[in-house]
Write a structure and sequence with these properties.
With about 260 residues, the chain is an alpha+beta fold. The protein has 2 domains: about 15-75, Arc Repressor Mutant, subunit A; about 80-265, GAF domain (Beta-Lactamase). The chain is built from 10 helices and 9 strands. The chain has helices at about 15-30, 35-45, 50-60, 75-90, 95-105, 150-155, 160-165, 185-195, 240, 245-265; strands at about 35, 65, 70-75, 110-115, 120-125, 140-145, 200, 210-215, 225-230.
């Protein structure tokens, strides 16, 4: 057990060893790259023997894992799954779904709320259009980052090295003739997304499907939530999809207010 006087870090607080472990996990969850025992000890001011025991407990629970030569740590699959379940269960009903329904009524096309999960985009919620021609993708569906509008937005928030590391973890699969599978071409696209503040999927994942997406604003300048509209090419063109941007951004702002209110509760 970890005694209460063994940790002096202001960022790892708690009245019990369990709460201190949870506080440490919060610090780890904020990181967007691998970390070492040494770097974390220096950052938090926690003695290495104490921190090592805490990391061992988190590792044994499969909440973090070791990578590479065993000296680097990152968040584990169990923690990712926990986060995904929280996001999914939190968007099935309530105010966020109301925003999504209103958006679909305004533009007449299917819309969804997404999050980044590893090297995939996770559909947190989705409302279908009443139009007879549509593509069905239910909440919990996953699509690759590199050929989805939301995925490009999430990639555009990453540093170039982090983005490259994530993309090179697996071959870029070609789903349609429009899918970008060369790293240099995709990086050029991501840089454009970074400048313009929105992203498009121009029949890159499914033939005949166009998608446009924006990020839900986050308090720290980064966001793990996007909102997107999708339509068959028979109803809209790439240029017409741009007309959705003002409405999408209003919906994104509404979701940001909801997230901020929920965080304050």
């Amino acid at each position: 057990m970890i005694s209460m006087d063994m940790i002096e870090s202001e960022r790892v607080e708690g009245n019990t060893p369990t709460l201190r472990l949870f506080a440490l996990l919060e610090v780890i969850a904020e990181k967007d790259s691998y970390f070492s025992l040494q770097s974390l000890s220096e950052e938090l001011g926690i003695p290495k023997p104490t921190l090592h025991r805490m990391l061992q407990q988190l590792e044994s629970a499969r909440l973090i894992i070791r990578d590479g030569d065993g000296r680097q740590y990152s968040t584990g699959r169990r923690l990712h799954q926990m986060a995904e379940k929280l996001l999914l269960n939190n968007t099935i009903h309530g105010s966020r779904r109301a925003v999504l329904r209103h958006l679909v009524e305004e533009i007449g096309e299917s819309c969804n709320i997404t999050a980044c999960s590893g090297n995939e985009v996770l559909y947190l919620d989705r409302v279908e259009t009443v139009a007879p021609l549509r593509f069905y993708l239910h909440p919990g569906s996953r699509v690759p980052l590199h050929c989805s509008a939301s995925g490009k937005l999430f990639l555009a928030q990453m540093s170039p090295s982090q983005c490259r590391r994530l993309l090179e973890a697996a071959p870029l699969e070609q789903y349609t003739p429009n899918t970008l599978i060369r790293y240099d071409a995709l990086e050029k696209e991501i840089e454009q997304v970074r400048r313009q503040g929105y992203a498009m999927d121009n029949e890159e994942f499914l033939p005949g499907l166009i998608c446009i997406a924006v990020l839900v604003p986050g308090e720290n300048g980064k966001s793990n939530m996007g909102i997107a509209a999708q339509s068959p090419v028979m109803r809209i063109t790439r240029e017409k999809a741009l007309d959705f941007l003002p409405v999408l951004r209003r919906a994104a702002d509404s979701l940001a207010h909801i997230e901020k209110a929920n965080a304050a509760m």
